[in-house]
Amino acid sequence: MYKKAKDHWDMVYQTKNPDQVSWTQKIPQPSLDFIHSFNLPKTAKIIDIGSGDSMLVDYLLEEGFENITVLDISVKAIDKVKKRLGEKAQKVNWVVSDITEFQFDTMFDVWHDRATFHFLVTGEQIARYLDRARKFVSDYLIIGTFSEKGPEKCSGLPIRKYDEDEMSLSFSNGFKKITCLTIDHETPFKTKQKFIYCSFRRI
Fold it and tell me: Which of 25, 43, 74, 90 has its CA 20 to 30 A from that of 53?
């Protein structure tokens, strides 16, 4: 399963530019708004799960955050971001792994995931993800997925859609929902995709 997923995403990031994939955001505003709402010190430990070649790390570095970890299953995606950041890449902790397989050696103040969780479609995958969140999140969780009005697939892969109640229930063992927002994401192709973002506090 790991190799199949890794090969898929390596191929995507090796062959497609940001303007050729639906999930590209020039400014990851919903994610930044949630992170800002936590009033974090610049030393806060933040991890971006399934980052792809997201711009979130660029903005966090620009704002002065000092302890950022970026995780993705695709080394090709990670390499793209490193190249884009240049010397700034040295300020980031990079992890190439499937989040359902990885074990960290630290806790994170903020766990951010925009569009990884909805690719987990089996009970076992979801359970492994939630286990890691409970083990390695000390304060806040931000999860963005396709809403119940979102597409059936993404990048040719099946996804699992969520509404606010399902999202809250999924993370209820260990986390308390702070707020949820529905977002219309405009793709580079000028189409709209329905997302739901939820923030949680560790309990």
Answer: 43
Q: Residue 52 — very low, low, confident or very high, per pLDDT cuts 50/70/90?
A: confident
Q: Which pLDDT tens digit goes with each residue over 181-196? A: 998 867 656 777 788 9
Q: The CATH number of the domain where 33 resides is what?
A: 3.40.50.150
**Measuring CA to CA, how many Å separate 71 from each of 93, 155, 190?**
9, 19, 28
Strand-by-strand arrangement of the 175-186 sheet: 92-96, 67-72, 45-49, 108-114, 137-146, 192-202, 175-186
Closest CA to 32 of 60, 70, 73, 69: 60
**Which has the closest alpha carbon to 15: 72, 74, 70?**
74
Query: How many domains does the chain fold into?
Result: 1
Confidence of residue 9 (pLDDT cuts 50, 70, 90): low
Structure tokens at 162: 């969520």
* CA–CA separation, 22 and 137 (whole Å): 29
DSSP-derived secondary structure for 146-175: EBTTS-SEETTEE---B-HHHHHHHTTTTE
- Domain boundaries, position 110: 2-19+26-202
pLDDT digits (tens, 9 = 90+) for 144-153: 998 888 667 7
Global pTM value = 0.90
Contact 48, 71 (CB under 8 A): yes
End-to-end Cα distance, the chain: 32
Residue 176: both structure tokens together: 């308390």
